[in-house]
Amino acid sequence: MNRLAGMTSPYLLQHADNPVDWWPWGPEAFEEAKRRDVPVLLSVGYSACHWCHVMAHESFEDETTAAQVNEHFVAVKVDREERPDVDAVYMEAVQAATGQGGWPMTVFLTPDAEPFYFGTYFPPESRHGMPSFGDVLDGVARAWADRREEVGEVAAKIVEDLSARSLAFGGDGVPGEQELSQALLGLTREYDSRSGGFGGAPKFPPSMALEFLLRHHARTGAEGALQMAADTCEAMARGGIYDQLGGGFARYSVDREWVVPHFEKMLYDNALLCRVYAHLWRTTGSDLARRVALETADFLVRELRTAEGGFASALDADSADPTGRHVEGAYYVWTPAQLAEVLGEEDAAFAARYFGVTDEGTFEEGASVLQLPQDAGVVEADRVASVRERLLAARDRRERPGRDDKIVAAWNGLAIAALAETGAFFDRPDLVERATDAADLLVRLHMSENARLFRTSKDGKAGANAGVLEDYADVAEGFLTLAGVTGEGVWLEFAGFLLDIVLDQFVAEGGALYDTAHDAETLIRRPQDPTDNATPSGWTAAAGALLSYAAHTGSEPHRSAAERALGVVKALGPRAPRFIGWGLATAEALLDGPREIAVVGPGGDDALTRALHRTALLGSAPGAVVAVGAPDSEEFPLLKDRPLVVGGAAAYVCRHFTCDAPATDPADLAHALSR
């Protein structure tokens, strides 16, 4: 029976034809395990995961291995992007037991879903100190048959240990100047002054920490914070982690210099980085930041936009090389001979110098990842444009990496915020339209009548999995940003619906937040993690959205909830700033107010209204919220009691219950926002 054939997850569909008798996660699988009196083999991965594909090919597509699995286990396949709650719970167990984690994640469970043996990738034969997958299967099956009592004791102890890990952070006061200064000092200590970023290899784009640094500079004027952000952004943009032909960022760099990426491209990375580069341009006017923000936005629309108007989750790392082998990076890398084939000898030599392509190669088998060691001079700009255009056209004829077409609500919320702001900053209304299309899709397909979110959809069909905290928080963030850019108050209203559910379903005693709703499926532990990973944690993203909504509406319950949630930032920010960057960025907004900017105009296509609105959006005050419309418009509470000035447009800036005199000149407004 092919139980995965009707799933909305491309990752599950990739395994639908395996000889392994897969079950999706659900009570039926565990009931079957109880009926047969066998353990559950839980395999967790995602569509763009290179080693997930490797293990699938080596083991799950192998008839002998599949027979061994089917005889002794009930096999359950989970897409971690559809079920982040399941992934989080069992990954915590894997990391606690082994000291490391990763995907594919391989966990053996009792029929009561209690874990007792763990791992990640297992090879088909023993190598490098790792047992073969067949040996693991045999050992676990024999332990279940011969040492059942011992297995049960181990499982019970693991569940007990996990249950004792519940966080109590929250409600201990908000972070202040001291904690944010200590966080900046911590980032400075970990900063890689040679190559940008933090820590060593592998090196991930520190999107949330960069947002904190930019906001800290905006609030305090700290030049060191801006320098770390600017230098890191430049190093990434010049490195191989950035696609020098098509735009967009790969998942991470395997080296500390950003040269060789892990080639998968994720929606969330590119949405977050698009926004960071747009904010860097807003602060510095950097041409490089402007170019990268726009190229990344165009990548999102060109490569990830789906027919329904949302944004797909990822592009794979692997594709076919010229010999037909599916290998990592084949779509992106170049040899000198390949350059010459496309460009001719003279332009190929120029391109090799410009993009850092060497005879030895910077990647594998003499191939190089394109970099940008230096900018082209004015005289060479046309030549560079011609070279890029021809190389991109040639690359488009290669086999493209696979695309995970699943729509994830949270990640689309991040994309909505990025595209709305980038479109507004750079006068690209088409990008704002694409953000609006995605927001419409989320409302139409992912929101139920009572505003409960479905986490995923595919091909216009909503998945069955309930939204988690990051979905509510990031979608609300996207809607709030879209409201400020478009002046359409309906997005503020939708954000309010989502954040009311956060208050009702996700808040714990003392103001801490859970990752799953009170009425969600019960797992062996209720996941609760305030730290950033590849995306802002649901906890800190919710704090940020609650704070922005409170600034828009004056809602005390929403602001109080945001402040209580930020207690975790007070506790963790000074100790682990790299891993709670979005919380630190939200704390910067709290300390700055955040500022509330109401732009009122006489209606129609009024030039002064547009100029004041644009100036408000380009203000770098941390977390500032913007409303634009007619005086006393019911769509935005900030517009209430904000009259025109001498019949013309005006902007009102308020914070901490105090308002400046209305500004009728964009220069005066810009000055007010810079103070």
Q: What's this, in brief?
A:
The protein is an alpha+beta fold and 675 residues long. Helices cover 49% and strands 10% of the residues.
Structure commentary:
The chain has 675 residues and is of the alpha+beta class. The chain folds into 4 domains: 10-163, Glutaredoxin; 187-316 and 403-592, Glycosyltransferase (Alpha/alpha barrel), CATH 1.50.10; 332-395, no CATH class; 596-674. The strands form 5 sheets. The protein has a 5-stranded mixed β-sheet, with helices on both faces. Strands 8-9-12-13-14 form a 5-stranded antiparallel β-sheet. α12 (287-304) crosses α16 (409-425).
Q: What best-fitting shape do the alpha-carbon axes yield?
A: globular
Q: What is the highest CATH level, the class of the largest domain?
A: Mainly Alpha
CATH fold-level topology of the largest domain: Glycosyltransferase
What is the mean pLDDT?
Answer: 94
Please, how many domains? 4
Terminal Cα separation, in Å? Answer: 66 Å
- Low-pLDDT stretches: none
Structural class: alpha+beta
Task: Calculate Rg over CA atoms.
Answer: 26 Å
Q: What is the CATH architecture annotation of the largest domain?
A: Alpha/alpha barrel
Taking the sheet with the most strands, its summary is:
5 strands, mixed
